[in-house]
From TrEMBL:
Molecular functions (GO terms): alcohol dehydrogenase (NADP+) activity; zinc ion binding
CDD domains for the chain: CAD1
Enoyl reductase (ER) domain ranges (all copies): 14-342
Cofactor(s) for this UniProt protein: Zn(2+)
Biological classification of the source: Bacteria, Bacillati, Actinomycetota, Actinomycetes, Kitasatosporales
Family named by the database record: Belongs to the zinc-containing alcohol dehydrogenase family.
Reactions accelerated catalytically: a primary alcohol + NADP(+) = an aldehyde + NADPH + H(+)
A Pfam family reported for this protein in Swiss-Prot or TrEMBL: ADH_N
Taxonomic source organism: Streptomyces seoulensis
Domain of life: Bacteria
Protein name according to UniProt: alcohol dehydrogenase (NADP(+))
Enzyme class: oxidoreductase
Keywords carried by this UniProt record: Metal-binding, Oxidoreductase, Zinc
SUPFAM superfamilies for this protein: GroES-like, NAD(P)-binding Rossmann-fold domains
Listed EC numbers: 1.1.1.2
Amino acid sequence: MTTVAAYAAPAPKAPLERTTIERRPVGDHDVLIDIKFAGICHSDIHQARDGWSEGIFPMVPGHEIAGVVTEVGPEVTKFSVGDRVGVGCMVDSCRECDNCKAGLEPYCTGGGPVLTYNDKDKEGEPTYGGYSEQIVVGEDFVVRIPDGLGLDVAAPLLCAGITTYSPLRHWGVGPGKKVAVVGLGGLGHVGVKLAHAMGAEVTVLSQSLRKKDDGLRLGADHYYATSDPETFEKLAGTFDVILNTVSAPLDFAAYMSLLRLDGAMVNVGLPEEPVQVTLQSIFGNRRNLTTSNIGGIPETQEMLDFCAEHGVGAEIELIGAGEINDAYERVTASDVRYRFVIDAATI
């Protein structure tokens, strides 16, 4: 076992504090990664504050991890010392079910994936995430970060990137498609960049026009305020895909009215509160109301390669580890443009 420094929440809703954790020895198929950068995802805050369900504490959050390989197990074939790599929201799965064999590990039916933190591995030990100096992960759940991407702007792609890329690809976004992105935050800003790079006509739907200039700069063709009732009248029946990135209940009937025939509203934000949907709002135009998880490992690699090819990286604010608690408060206040990333050298 190796002892490394980390930042952990000792209890639900408690401020994160510097501590030490133990990482397992490097096994035959494991990769040891020196973490360089770790993104702060809103789901880190949900979990550290028991917003979704009861967590495992002490909790070391962080599933947007970018770093460099410093040691590999004797049976590792995919990576070498010095490689630039990333780790996202999961570090293992059953590997035997149909979904896992198809490269859809987030949908593992053999007990579900082992999450990067706030979970237990196959030995029953708690998993600890990326707010730490190092991590040991099986090579099958590590992805390569192309040279064309800076590690700092690549880190958020390991969650925000694949969370938005996967549904855009699944629903056939490309030239000739009209896509709306609800919310211009940590997820939404990456979704706008990706949809634009895929060749779609992109519209941002936000509560106000406060971030309009940013939205247009990031690749949006149009920007509307949802606080204006005329928005829903003007855009009725417009979109092939609506990507909802906000973690709050919405008036789904209003948003579903914006879809054209066979359009899909895909929800990737997960509110802490239950939401209600009126079926009558879905019936018209054979609309789809659906969700999407992160993508599997093959699709995550595909996403990173796509981002490198098209110059897509997260818009980040780099912080020291001592600023994590302040960053949590700013995220909940929507006061970040658009992703906090921790410089792991400060842990």
